[in-house]
Design brief:
By secondary structure, this protein is mostly helical. It is built from six helices and two strands; from the N terminus they run αααββααα.
Length: about 130
């Protein structure tokens, strides 16, 4: 599966927020430096994560972002859906309805991939990083 660069940055930003594990917000400037991306670009992604209810933003000079949900509850799929949306990757371009055998195979593959990503929590990755 190919996902956008925005999703890649969002996953890394979320991993950083989980490993920072601070009640103090992490500023967009620090996050942008860590990820090597512009603050403007990162802010757009972070806004999507806020709208999805994964993080919250704190305004002001000491503001930034912090987790809104428990890190153990946040899956890779949550983050991917926040950035990419929930549209199916696979659509049969022939007009013969849902009985298309090829579409059934790829939709089943997509369901399996989504189940895997739903079961992968960002906190589990953070724990692996801390033990290395």
């Amino acid at each position: 599966m190919k996902y956008s660069q925005a999703t890649d940055y969002a996953l890394h930003a979320m991993l950083y927020l989980v490993t920072a594990a601070s009640d103090k917000p992490v500023g967009v400037q620090l996050l942008a430096e860590k990820l090597g991306v512009s603050q403007t670009y990162l802010s757009k992604m972070m806004t999507k994560l806020v709208k999805a209810g994964l993080i919250q933003s704190a305004p002001g000079a000491n503001g930034g972002y912090r987790l809104k949900r428990k890190s153990e509850e946040i899956s890779f799929l949550d983050i991917i859906h926040a950035i990419e949306g929930t549209a199916s990757l696979f659509e049969c371009s022939l007009d013969h309805g849902s009985e298309c055998l090829i579409q059934q195979v790829v939709i089943d593959a997509e369901r399996q991939m989504e189940q895997y990503l739903e079961n992968k929590k960002i906190a589990d990755l953070a724990k692996t990083m801390k033990t290395e």
